[in-house]
Amino acid sequence: MFEELEKINTRPKPFEFYTASDLWTDDRTSQQMLSFRLNEEIDVASRKASFIDRSVEWIANHFQVGAGTKIADFGCGPGLYTKKLAQRQADVTGIDFSKRSIQYAREVANREGLSIHYVNENYLDFETSDRFRLILMIMCDLCALSPTQRNKMLTKFHKFLKPGGSILLDVYSLKAFEQREETALYEVNLQNGFWSPNKYYGFLNTFKYEQEKVVLDKYTLIEADRTRTVYNWLQYFSPEGLEREFVEYLKYA
Q1: What is the tens place of the pLDDT at every residue in 36-76?
Q2: Which of its termini does the chain have fewer beta carbons within 10 Å around, N or C?
Q3: pTM: predicted TM-score of the whole model, two decimal places
Q4: pLDDT at residue 43 in the model
Q5: CATH, domain 28-171+239-252, list 3.40.640.10, 3.40.109.10, 3.40.50.150, 3.30.450.70
Q6: Longest distance between any two alpha carbons in the chain, whole Å
Q7: Taking residues 73-92, what's their average pLDDT?
C-alpha cells in the first residue's frame, strides 16, 4: 500500500506521459465532456455561448470571413465555432478525436443544412491536401501539447496555410500560472462521479513546474477492476515566449 501511495504522489517529468485519449475518447468521460461543452452558461471544455457569439463576430470581421473562406478548426469539439462560421458561408473543416463530439456536430450540421467537413481523428495525425486561409485552435488546446507536439502542429499549420493565411489560437498566461497552487486531494467518486458510473477512489495531485511554466493535474482513479492514471498537462505562456516559440520554429521550417 505504501508503495502504491508513493507512486500516486510521484511527480513525473514535464510531459513525460500523454493520456489525452483517456479524456476525449473514453465512453464515459467523452459523454461528460460533451455535456460540459454544450452547457452555454459555464466555461468548462468550451466558452460560454455569449463569448462564442462575440468571438465569431470578431473573427468574421477581422479575417473578412465570407462565402468560400476556407477555415480549419483543430479541436472543433461539437462544432460550436464551425457551425457559426459555416452559417456565414465559409468552407469549414473541423477536426477532433472525440467520436461523440464529432457525431453531435455532424447531426447539427445535417439538421441545419450546413455543409461542414468533419474529421474524427487526432489532429496530431491529421493530413490533408486542402489549404486554408484561417486555422483555428481555440480553448487553449496548444497548452495541452508538449514542446515536441507543438512543433509538430506548427509544421502542419505551416503546410496547411495558404500564402498570406492566418493562425488564431489562445493560450494560458503567466498570470494564470501564478494563481495555480500545488495540491493533493483524495475523494470517493472524485469530481462527483465524473470518471466512472461505478464507485471509485480518486486522487488528484497538482504539480507546478516553475522553470518550464507547466502545471500537471494528475488523476489516479482506482476502481474494483482497474486502476488508471490520467495526466492533464497545461503549458503557460508569456506573449514573448509564445512569439519566441513561433520564431524558433520558422528558423528551421
Answers
A1: 677 666 665 567 888 899 999 999 999 999 999 999 999 99
A2: N
A3: 0.91
A4: 60
A5: 3.40.50.150
A6: 62
A7: 96
Cell digits of residue 121: 481523428
172 grid coordinates: 494560458
Pairing of strands 214-222, 227-237: antiparallel
Spell out the domain ranges in the chain. Answer: 2-22+175-236, 28-171+239-252
Q: Find cell 488546446 and name the residue.
A: 141
